[in-house]
Amino acid sequence: ETGVTQTPRHLVMGMTNKKSLKCEQHLGHNAMYWYKQSAKKPLELMFVYSLEERVENNSVPSRFSPECPNSSHLFLHLHTLQPEDSALYLCASSLGTSNNEQFFGPGTRLTVL
Amino acid sequence: LAKTTQPISMDSYEGQEVNITCSHNNIATNDYITWYQQFPSQGPRFIIQGYKTKVTNEVASLFIPADRKSSTLSLPRVSLSDTAVYYCLVLNDMRFGAGTRLTVKP
Predict the structure, then answer these.
(1) Chain A nearest-CA residue for B29
(2) N or C end of chain A: which has fewer CB within 10 A?
């Protein structure tokens, strides 16, 4: 058990659906991250939150909308996705954003039809 | 883009020592070097972290030369379960490169 949980573990959605991915960390960390990992590609950093403030947004399309209501929870709201958005979405947390080990959740396997 | 470069893949046999080298020529003074392991359809898992010289834990050793422009992860006596992708990360960057796919054969 890594202390970082993600739900759902699997999600299938149509291009017109709206869904949300949830991440929760029980480690008392102050930073949380969303990564995308497409098949046979490196992890892509999407968003970084530190103390509930977004500190990095790597040119992610607006159809992905993050939300960090508190330091323990991170959401990724999805709407009008494309089939190429199908991937493993990983959440991670760390004590801070500088030189701190990241703890990853198990990921959500997303399929967009 | 990640600030690190690693071999794409490596093969080894059970019981051998495996050394994976990572280049990070533009590492900053305050950057630490961290290695992660990832199995298919799982999140990466921390292995080891270091700043300079040598660090050892129960899983691996990390060797960092004085110029810190590279680092080598050493896995002693690998087993089949060590088959995974290994990532070198300059920690302040938070960006993962392609990693090294290690395949351990019987």
Answers:
(1) A99
(2) N
